[in-house]
Task: structure prediction
Amino acid sequence: MLESGALVVDSVSHCFNHTEENRKHPHAKRWDDETYELGEQLQPDEYVHPKEVFYRDHSVEELERLLFLESQVDYTNYHSLPLDDYFHDGLVARDKGFKLRERNPDRVSMYVDINPLEDDAVEQVEHYVKERDVEGIKLYPARYQNGQDLSLQLNEDTVRPVLEKAAELDVTSVGIHKFIPFATAPVRYFRMGDVEDAANAFPELNFEVIHAGFSFLEETVFAMASHENVYANLENTIHMAASRPRKFAESLGEMLYWAGPDRIVFSGGSTALHPQAAIDAFWDFEIPEDMRAGNDYPQVTDEIKEKILGKNALRLLDKDPDQLRKDIAGDKWEQKREERRETGDFPAEPWSTYKTPAEP
Amino acid sequence: MRVIESSDQDHVTPDTEFESDLKTDIKAQLQEVLDPCSCITDNPIDLVDLGIIDDISVDEASGEARIDILLTSQRCMYVIDICDEIKERVESLPAIETAEVHQVTSGKVWTAERMSEQQQRERRERFRERVDAAGITPYAERSD
Result:
């Protein structure tokens, strides 16, 4: 919660497994290492993981302490990842997300990963929406299978049945990884054309484009400006407020100018990045005057920041802020936060709630 | 963390002038190398216009050239193709014996500000045309 009392909603958290045993594909180590390096590049030094913290199978207990004791995040949306072509458990396992939600039912929503190439992908959507009450589904734009990178764009025949089922079941949102290419998948898979097509074809679904503002900015703001159901999810991007302020200013300024402040959502990027690093940097962020004047970018007011840090995500998830406040008032995390506030230890020091070495 | 306030402007641009004729010839060769990603769009752009070329150095006596490149992304998967074409084109100059390509990994980051002014302007115009054609009014300029 911000000092103003506004709720902080984290639109993507993950419980990563960066252990050697989890690597399945020759590029998996590189993936792990580049994720670590991204944190080094994007975050102030005090927020960079000690390596013994990063390279582990992060536990649900560690993630919840990271979110609720080391940061001002009040509510999180866990995304599992379908990367079992590279990692044995997909890199971010589903079961950890369900466990996190089970332990914190008032503070967690869940987007479940779906691989449209699996024979029962449509049945999986039905199962997870009806039986496990997930709010959204998480897709990736490519798969590596039988030695080839396969495209899984949202406008392709393989993906369409998944979207049709999601629309039929009134799924809130479809999260789609974009903008940061990985491994050997061609760059074109990470562009926005397919999102526009899907947003047209499924006006009842919302599409959250993850890592918006990292690249292909013009395509992104065009899609947002022309489709009310396209949202920018700032996972990783928002950390640039600290480390790449002018690049971030351009990304945010363009989104605000073309599409307005209501469809941009904050993500802390746990456990790959530290959520409080982004919250601090964003709350202090201003678009430099020369960039505002030259491009008609609006001032990033506290009102806009509160929308991006929480209000927009709550609206997207159809959660009533007042009800959420009541639900979490006095819960175990609020009690622990209060105890720490009394000793000046909230938010706790970065990664201080992790045990090293990792517990078996 | 190194804070990148703005792009370092000490890279090679279309306007960069060298005292060395050989460096000028190398730059001309590099202007023939197209960025592979841009080639999948309708607007191919060469490496100099894109701001990829960070530095050109050459030992005129031995004919050894070195080209420093700053990729738009450290995860660029076309780096091998880009390096091969740079090497091939620069070594095609009679005064060059060998050309080496080095990736800048100092933490410097490519941003769109490294693109040539003309390319930035053209890109902006293309975007405006697309937006106008779609009948989109920017949120900031809407009256309702």
